[in-house]
Amino acid sequence: MLKNYSSITEFYLLGFPGSKELHNILFATFFFFYSVTLIGNMVIILTVCVDKRLQSPMYFFLAHLSVLEILITSVAVPVMLWGLLLPGMQAVSLSACCVQLYLYLSLGTSELLLIGAMAVDRYVAVCNPLRYTIIMNSRTCLWVVIVSWVFGFLFQIWPVYATFHLTFCKSNVLDHFYCDRGQLLKLSCDNSLFTEFILFLMAVFIIVGSMIPTVVSYTCIISTILRIPSGSGRRKAFSTCASHFTFVVIGYGSCLFLFVKPKQTQAAEYNRVASLMVLVVNPFLNPFIFTLRNDKFIEAFRNVMKRCYQLLRD
What is the pLDDT of residue 38? Predict the structure, then answer.
C-alpha cells in the first residue's frame, strides 16, 4: 500500500483472511461473545453494587475486574466486528491506532495488578481469617484499586511512545484486526531490536511481577487447606479460591503467550489467536467462572431480579 515514505498518517487493518461467508460466521460468533461479555460483566457489577451481602473485598475487586474486562474487550472488539462487515481492508488513523494500543496495554496492566491483589485477598481470607476484616478494610481495598489503575496507565506511556516514535516506512498495512504492537514493529525501518528487548523486559516485569504474589499466595493457601482436618472444611476453603484460581491460569497463560517473547514481531497467525484469547475468550468466560458455582452470588442475583420484577409490576 505505501512504500518509500517515512511519514504515515493512517494504517490499514487486514483483519481475518477468508471469504465473505467466513467473515459473516466470525462476525456472528464474536458478536455473540461480545454481547454475553457485556451483559454478564454488567450483571456482576450491578449485583455487587445493589446487594449488601456482597459488600466484601472479594466482590469489590470482582466488580472492578468486570469493569476492566468490559473496557478491554471494548477497545478492540467493536473495531474488529466493523472490519468483518466491511469489504477489503479497514483504515485507522495514526492517532486512533496509538490511543487503541495505549488503552489496551494500560487496562491489561491494571487488570494483572488487580488479579495479583485478589490472590493476596484470598490468602488473607484463608490463612488469616481472624484478621481479615482488619487487613482488608475498605480503605485498603480502595487504595489497591486506585494504585492498580494509576500504575497501569502511567507504566504504559513509554512503551507506546517508543513504539510510535519509530519510523514506519515499509508499509502501512497491519496484518491484524487491531493495532498490535508486534505488527507495528514489523513496519518499522529502524533497528528496533533494543526497543523490543526493553518492551520484553517490561512485559516480564508486569506479568511475572504480578504472578509472584499470586503464586506465593496460592502456595500458602493450598498448604493451609491441606492441614484442615475435615473434608467439608477443605472443600469450603477451596471453593472460595477456585474461581479466581481458574481465571488466573487462563489469564496468565494467554498473556505469557502474547507478550512474554523476546521477538515481538511474531507471526501474524500466532498473534491473532493469542489476541482473541485475551480480548474475546477471557472476558467472555469471566462471568461464568466467578458466578456459576458461587451460591452466594446466585442468591444475590435472584434477589436483584425479584426487586426489578416488583418495580416493573408496580
Answer: 95
